[in-house]
Design goal:
- The protein is an alpha+beta fold.
- The chain has two domains: 4-203, Rossmann fold; 228-418, Jelly Rolls, CATH 2.60.120.
- The chain contains twelve helices and 20 strands.
- It has helices spanning 13-24, 33-36, 44-54, 70-81, 95-101, 103-109, 126-135, 148-151, 154-160, 200-212, 214-221, 373-376, and strands at 4-7, 30-31, 57-62, 86-90, 115-116, 236-238, 246-247, 253-255, 258-262, 268-270, 278-286, 291-299, 302-309, 318-325, 328-337, 347-355, 358-367, 382-389, 399-403, 409-418.
- Helix 5 packs across helix 6 and helix 9 packs across helix 10.
- The two termini are 24 Å apart.
- Mean pLDDT is 82; it is low at 147-169, 171-187 and 189-226.
Length: 426
């Protein structure tokens, strides 16, 4: 019996394979058609029916291609009939487009909140999927933990790149008469990654080679004139099992795979890491509703500081940018009014893109406690948080970190950072 059945269409093979690898690396068993669908003596329908009946949960990849597939519809219906819980993931399609194209699926999913897969790739939502599974009382099994790179075979990589002639194919889907509306543009400018989803899996494999070639990367990127620490050229993943990688205040604490920060106005930062251009992704939970703050390009007491002020914060429901020079803090620019009100106990995924002297932020509403009825309707939304351009390029590179302003209390989990040309480790 497999823990999770992944329902998807052939065009979304790369995403399904990468998702399966990420979950299997964390102790879950998965079933997906590309690898598991060919069983001698059994038809496609009998094979998938048995896999759905035996699984504990179904992950449904919703995309412009999958909503046109009668085969995926059959899998949704079977999962609904057997009362399997759903975790819906949206790929290049909005919730409104999905409901318009497949109202039958929406009815089968019931109250399940769909998770948007960002342009940066499915690896950014694996943590959200795991939390959903744990809420369903589906726990990972340590004995199943795999090496994520070993789980991605050369044949899978060729399939994802469209080079394989041997890929097992599902029966040809019958096209629907209702066209899928075009997906909305991403929140970030120049979202090239969304047009290259078939290369994600290749990029994950290339990361392993990048680790071997890190020394060459250091020569190419050079080092900061004021520091002996070279620019970091490989992806960084932080699960917060401990704080060995951090220089931090004494009252930082970790537990259950999350960092908890409370009343800690001193900056804590990754030790011996320096970045210029990068993409960063992490989840925060506003424990007491006052807010959270993070630093970019930190070098000692100098850094860019971004403050997400919660409903009980100093500037309620605003996103504020500061320049901190030698410990002196100055607000820059105009505070950004947050589109959806933040709430105490709510969890959000923050995605940051740093390019030269430009910083782009977006926020995804991961989960909202039931007591916040007004905010609950926005769960699953992603929107632009705010952009900042420093004409002086005051801090050309540095580390990343977190802190509070006053009595804020928040947690951080699932931190990924990757420089240009790399993908985050699962």
């Amino acid at each position: 019996m497999r823990d999770i059945f992944i329902s998807y269409v052939a065009e979304d093979d790369p995403t399904a394979v990468e998702l399966a690898a990420g979950l299997e690396a964390r102790g879950y068993s998965t079933w997906y058609y590309t690898r598991d669908g060919s069983v001698p003596g059994l038809s496609y329908l009998m094979t998938t029916r048995a896999a759905i009946d035996e699984c504990q949960a179904v992950i449904l990849l919703i995309s412009p291609d999958s909503v046109m597939s009668d085969q995926v519809t059959a899998e949704v219906i079977r999962a609904h009939e057997t009362k399997k819980p759903f975790i819906p993931l949206r790929l290049n399609i909005s919730h409104e487009q999905f409901v318009q194209s497949q109202p039958e699926w929406a009815q089968a999913l019931g109250a399940a909140t769909s998770i948007d897969i960002p342009a940066e790739g499915v690896s950014f939502v694996v943590g959200n999927v795991m939390r959903a599974l744990q809420k369903m009382k589906i726990a990972p099994r340590p004995e199943l933990v795999t090496n994520e790179m070993a789980a991605i075979t050369p044949e899978m990589i060729r399939q994802a790149a469209g080079e394989s002639k041997e890929r097992p194919a599902r029966p040809t889907p019958t096209p629907r008469s209702t066209p899928v509306p075009p997906p909305t543009a991403g929140a970030f400018p120049d979202a090239k990654a969304s047009s290259k989803k078939k290369l994600y899996l290749i990029g994950a494999a290339v990361v392993a080679l990048a680790l071997v070639g890190a020394t060459i990367g250091l020569w190419l990127n050079g080092s900061d004139a004021e520091s002996d620490t070279p620019l970091t050229t490989t992806p960084v993943r932080e699960d917060f099992l401990n704080l060995q990688a951090w220089t931090h205040p004494p009252n930082w604490a970790v537990g259950d795979g999350a960092l908890e920060i409370a009343e800690a106005p001193q900056l804590g930062f990754l030790t011996d890491k320096r970045f210029r251009d990068f993409t960063m992704n992490f989840q925060i939970t506003l424990i007491n509703g006052e807010g959270a703050a993070w630093a970019l390009r930190a070098d000692g007491d100098s850094y860019y500081l971004f403050y997400l002020s919660g409903p009980k914060g100093m500037q309620p429901n605003r996103f504020v940018t500061y320049l901190v020079k030698d410990g002196k803090m100055d607000q820059v620019g105009t505070p950004f009014n947050i589109i959806r009100p933040l709430c105490e106990g709510c969890a959000y995924t923050i995605t940051i893109k740093a390019e030269g002297n430009n910083f782009f932020h977006q926020i995804h509403i991961d989960s909202v406690p039931d007591q916040h009825e007004d905010e609950k309707q926005f769960e699953g939304e992603t929107y632009k948080l705010g952009d900042y351009a420093d004409a002086e390029d005051t801090f050309p590179n540095g580390s990343v970190g977190f802190r509070t302003f006053a009595s804020e209390k928040f947690s951080v989990a699932d931190l990924f950072i990757y420089p240009p040309g790399t993908r985050p480790l699962q």
